[in-house]
Automatic annotation (TrEMBL):
This is Uncharacterized protein. It comes from the Bacteria. It comes from Aerococcus kribbianus. Keywords: Coiled coil. Residues 9-85 form a coiled coil. Gene3D superfamilies: 1.20.5.2950.
Length: 108
């Protein structure tokens, strides 16, 4: 009977060790799974952030290009207006300059 009890205690102890090992293995696996999930979420967040930054940079570049084109167009139209105004008044400007030179230097 005593040997039966010792055998039962040893069997129970082996079962307890097996359960403890199983628990430790599952705990270790759960921790590894958790770390992997965190890494996956971190990578997804970094990818989304990188995509957002790229989209933002593209939007800014497009806005800048549009602004530059509008400014260039505006400057061209202003230059065309100035050129037209000069051409319209060119004859009178030349006549005025010739008149002033004639007054100062006379007909020499």
């Amino acid at each position: 009977m005593e040997s039966n009890t010792i055998a039962k205690v040893m069997e129970t102890e082996e079962e307890a060790k097996a359960i403890a090992k199983s628990y430790q293995d599952k705990k270790k696996q759960a921790k590894a799974d958790n770390q992997q999930a965190i890494e996956d979420y971190r990578k997804q967040a970094q990818d989304k952030l990188a995509a957002y930054k790229e989209d933002l940079a593209n939007d800014q570049a497009a806005t800048l290009k549009q602004f530059q084109e509008e400014k260039a167009s505006q400057q061209q139209s202003e230059m065309a207006e100035i050129e037209t105004a000069f051409k319209d008044k060119q004859d009178s400007i030349v006549d005025y300059i010739v008149g002033e030179v004639t007054k100062v230097y006379g007909n020499r």
